[in-house]
Amino acid sequence: MAAYIKGAAVISPQKTFGDQGFPEEIVGYHQVSNLKCIEPVYRDFIDPMVARRMSRIVKMGVCSALQCMRDTGISMPDAIIAGTGLGCLEDTEKFLASVYTNDEKLLNPTPFIQSTHNTLAGAIALAVKCHNYNATYTHRGFSFEGALTDAFLHLEENPQLNILAGSFDELTTHSYQITSRLGLWKNHPVNSLELMHDRSRGSLPGEGVAFFMLSGKNSPTDLALLKSVETFYKPGNYKAIEQRIDHFLAGQGLKPVDIDLVITGINGDTTRDQVYHQLMDRMLKGRPFTCFKNLCGEYDTSSSFALWLAAMILKTQRIPEAIQPGDPIPGEINRILIYNHLRGNNHVLYLIERC
Amino acid sequence: MPQRVYVTGIGIISAIGFGVKEVIDSLKGMRTGVGRLTLIDSVHRGELPVAEIRASDKELLSMAKPEIRGYFTRTALLGLVAARQAVIHADIDLNSPWRTGLISGTTVGGMDRSEVFYKTFLRDKTKGRIRDVAGHDCGDCTEKIADCLGISDFVSTINTACSSSANSIMLGARLIRHGKLDRVVAGGMDALTLFTLNGFNSLMILDHQQCKPFDENRNGLNLGEGSGFLVLESEEVVRREGKTALCELKGYGNACDAYHQTASSPEGFGASQSMMKALELAQLSPEDIGYINTHGTGTKNNDLSEGVALESIFKGAVPPCSSTKSYTGHTLGAAGAIEAVLSVVALQNGWIYPNLNFSAQMHELRFAPVTEFRTGAAVNHIMSNSFGFGGNNSSLIFSRY
Predict the structure, then answer these.
(1) pLDDT band at A20 (very low <50, low <70, confident <90, very high)
(2) Among B72, B122, B195, B354, which residue's Cβ finds the most Cβ atoms within 10 Å?
(3) Which residues on neighbouring strands pair with residue A169, listed in sequence order?
(4) For residue range B99-113, what is the model confidence (pLDDT) as tens digits?
(5) Cα nearest neighbour of B194 on chain A
(6) pTM for the full model?
(7) Do A157 and A74 touch, CB atoms closer than 8 A?
(8) So what's the ipTM on this one?
(9) What CATH number is given for B255-399 in this structure?
(10) Which CATH fold would you assign to the domain B5-240?
(11) Catalytic residues of B
(12) Residues A26/A14, Cβ–Cβ less than 8 Å
């Protein structure tokens, strides 16, 4: 089963929102905690009275979903499925702080209501009065893939359906402070665009929202074809990763040589990036490869940004300067493999083809 | 032909018992698990009753016996206890070549520890034990359980608020039906936290007495904690291994109320839709359903909305129904799975559970919940409802086979 990507709307630290192509200008960031989304003009999408009660991530999510529906002309999706690693953090923190500062008394329930992970998928359904299937996945580096797995099951049942599937994760001041103490990020300023060359421990935290309209039925305006998505959990060693990739490609009747471009999850953390370099030196040797986290940062659902990027590259046959592979691609780009992992535990593979 | 999906094992930990046997005893004895809050340091102690599991984190740890090192949140321990029971009950060999997945549902994951961290962190950003927050995310408990049980083919976690684990069971069934997996350990867990206690209290939907689902004078819900897990296996696994299944998972439906962020629509539109979808998939008529384990939280809003939906689907002939939340409290992300376990047990034994604390008929409804423990009931199909914030409604149908 494969899914045609009918449209995509992405809000990220790059100017990705609003037009259906690559932004002319790529934005570089120089402070570790600065890869925050460039926010859209909310009033173009949400009644200001309604928006006032929503947190930043819910507003961005609703805008992204509505833009995706506008772009594709699909006003009533057959399912709304979201993935998020950490849910609505800002409101979770806000409510928890109020519990302690107000000694559990006279608390404002709004941040509690909007703290649940399914707030966004519910808010999108509410915005368009969609009574169809609705779910939210939240499993670290498999969160967006959970949503896609679910979407694929729907399309197997009925290829005619239009599924709105997306992801959202936000970076907050507190989450940055806490994850810094877990040792996840660089402890020195880095030019984000040069992230892949900074050979030290840690990455740059990022955030983003992405929604895709998926269908089993093709149309002339489709961005790309998502052929397959696979997750694998805690592979024992490097060999096991090669085997999974080999198996994944073989399942599509492909060999590494059939891949025109590999988009890797290289995030600048030397310990975590080793596996990507090993793969590019061995199994995928000679295949042009690039990265994406220098544009959006590291977060649980960053693979959704990579999927958007892959679809855009296939559609426009253009690769932005900031992520040009070392070796130029000789011909057309017809097939892209995405390989990403989160902290060595959650590994994901995507195969995307030109329509 | 899609694979049929069978339930071959169940596990439960709840305020009314550790394991199926203890839970059955409490149900028969009409003993609720709702009582005084003791484990969390809250100003609401003594004022808000809860359905607490009478075991400290340390006691749970010795009960759960994790195979791996690492720091376990209470949520992860609850999940591990129930999931292990289910795996043992189903007598599954995880070294066999069957593709096995673990899917769980939870609403606040490791909040039981991260809220402790946050209290210290709020005062000083360099303070707070970092290990307390490392398991905050919802995926943590699923991965801990998967690592202990040795499940790695597929892991996923769902958070659709109070219908989370009904949806995890539903996803498990769909993956088996489509031949993606042969076997899924599916369920959910949630621990009581200061966060949820104060959250529901701020919404003013917590009853200061024992909750009274479907009662005219109901006054809100009682929060609970716990975990339930089912082992789902394909008909091929059951046939090839010569297993006796407990029952079949025949239908499921998911719909969105899309009415309000927290409140249910007065006509219960989303609830009707999820029940209808489940009936349709199971190819059953409403009159085939012998018992409904309702969502029945005890709030004014839910019970009216669900009640109206039941009357519209079952056309004035609502089958025997009850809310077991009057025993277990509302266990949020675990509720769907705990009630699925209870539904499987009811189906196997021909039982219908009482709805405790009911005395006054709701004037808007014509049906009343069952108030006594019934045995020998001719029940072939049981429906279990789970509805959540955000309008996330799901219904499951378990059938004798």
Answers:
(1) low
(2) B72
(3) A208
(4) 999 999 999 999 999
(5) A99
(6) 0.98
(7) no
(8) 0.98
(9) 3.40.47.10
(10) Peroxisomal Thiolase; Chain A, domain 1 (3.40.47)
(11) 162, 295, 330
(12) yes
